[in-house]
Design a protein that fits this description.
The protein is mostly helical. It has one domain. The protein contains 4 helices and no strands.
Length: 98
Amino acid sequence: MSVIYDEVWITTMREVEICRYSLKKYERFLRKMEDKYGMNTDDFVKKYGFSEDQTDFSDKDTRKVREENIDFKKWYDIYLAKEKCSQRMRELERFLDK
């Protein structure tokens, strides 16, 4: 039974390392966007949060957003990926603590 436990532990640790690597990559991208647009990611998400089918903005004050829609959509997608990866890592770490 110990061999199975060891294999599960090793596999889970690999998953944790993949999550750590991905989180670092996501953080670098988010910092790049924050620097480019002079806004932190939390403020960006509150101000411009996207829905799945949102491709246009009706508010006239967001005309610039339309022009930068590709960057903003990618920023939001990476934000969501980071959140999902963070959650996955917490679950894996909880599993390892058992």
